[in-house]
Amino acid sequence: MSNEYDVVIIGSGPGGYVCAIRCAQLGLKTALVEKYETLGGTCLNVGCIPSKAWLDSSEKYHELVHNFDNHGIKASKVQLDFPKMSERVQKVVSDTCAGVSFLMKKNKVDVYTGHGSFVDPHTIKVAGKKEELLKAKNVVIATGSKPSSIPGIEIDKKRVITSTEALKMKELPKSLAVIGGGVIGLEMGSVFLRLGSKVSVIEYADTCIAAMDKDLGKNLQKVLKKGGMEFYMGHGVSSVKATAKSVKITAKTKKDDKEVVINADYCLVAVGRKPYTDGLGLEKAGITLDERGRVPTDDHLKTSVSHIFAIGDVTTGIMLAHKAEEEGVFVAEQLLGQKPHINYNLIPGVVYTWPEVASVGATEQALKESKKAYKVGSFPFKASGRARASDESDGLIKILADKETDEILGVHMIGPRCADLIAEAVLAMEFRASAEDIARTCHAHPTYSESFKEACLAATENRALHI
Ligand code: FAD
Ligand code: NAI
Question: Which domains occur in the chain, in start order?
């Protein structure tokens, strides 16, 4: 194959591989460079997909052990086959990664395996089994992110681990300490809690999943606490010391420096992620990173060099797979002179715990800060017939609407299947629906989605029907 391309994309995560597909669909000669043998990036290999596979398997086990009895189903001698569970997860990962390879072939994208770096602004070196030079009219940097740590804490990947190792555990820990009550901490913490580990979460902030509407964090913490998760909120970790078989974590309260010591088999460090640009040779392309190590771009995702773009976790914005995908499509279409658009306010966030947490648009805190006049409508799942039928009545849906115009400004939910329910809210907001629009839309009965309609009824003259 000739090594001259319209586009060379570095990184095959959801940003890079989706960008490659869209470029190829639009007729551009496209190359995708990935340093690992498998495609799919963090998301498919060590992120979204394996974590959701663990969450689903552990939820099934937990339901069988703890909740089936309520439904009149008796199970005895239930056994956990941890290695088999892990094997299934790895199979889901390898099948999904193989799916991306198939899509590259189908779309005639040339895949190069090896570390990509700039030789000059139009030349990319791929250091793989052999070294190759690719000439590119345009380059897309989609190199993603890696886990961050806290100063002074060594991640030895044996006892002090990140999500990458937690997803590939060889044994079920008796106890797991998690530093960070954010998305990874609570998702991975839930997996091990459901399987029987003692899980302790140490979080510096006063609420968990603090970037989301405060009501969600409060509610989620309550449910997880009821399920046995231990929380040390408002605690900063001062030291983590690992031995061959355990870890000792020392933390201090923010308020009065009171020390607590937590001993566990493993310590999962989940304190955020940082952009990954190691060995990319950005200086040879004339690109400088910003103060947080991100590749800065303008509104068109263009870097300071006009034919080089950056998308996904490596640039600014929320680190989510679907945000990376939207940006991949955006760059491809723009290269063809189209005028794509991304509404960053409408990128939903989901936490795949149980109950699930999902959110889109403005939080109540943000509306208060901006002094926007708003009204609230909320509906608890315990008033939903469907939720009661399924024994899933924890949680609520809260909608925030403009006090004057009734336009929906934010939707925040915690409860059964909220990861899927949020799509209706995103769509409604994309079309700038009012709460009244949803309140007058027929929703099938009995479904969880009726709760969204009820929350909208509650926001419009307090006329929810079932509370
Ligand atoms: P990445 O997926 O990180 O891909 C970047 C790729 O570039 C990697 O394959 C890397 O090897 C490659 N690369 C880097 N440098 C080079 C180089 N120089 N040469 C060649 N290749 C290179 N997001 C969600 O939306 N939903 C979820 O449920 C979710 N769950 C997650 C669970 C976990 C445990 C983690 C860690 C993350 C999760 N995320 C989730 C976040 C999501 O994985 C990321 O936002 C997403 O993968 C970012 O995509 P990306 O394409 O920007 O980068
Ligand atoms: P996060 O930003 O969600 O949470 C990190 C937490 O660690 C914060 O609450 C922070 O206050 C806390 N923290 C930081 N330093 C601390 C310290 N010294 N002591 C105690 N607590 C401390 O980051 P996380 O969970 O690592 O996830 C990284 C990113 O990956 C997420 O922001 C998200 O973009 C993505 N992700 C998305 C998922 C999803 O969409 N379902 C799932 C998993 C990850």
Answer: 4-147+274-344 (3.50.50.60), 160-271 (3.50.50.60), 355-459 (3.30.390.30)
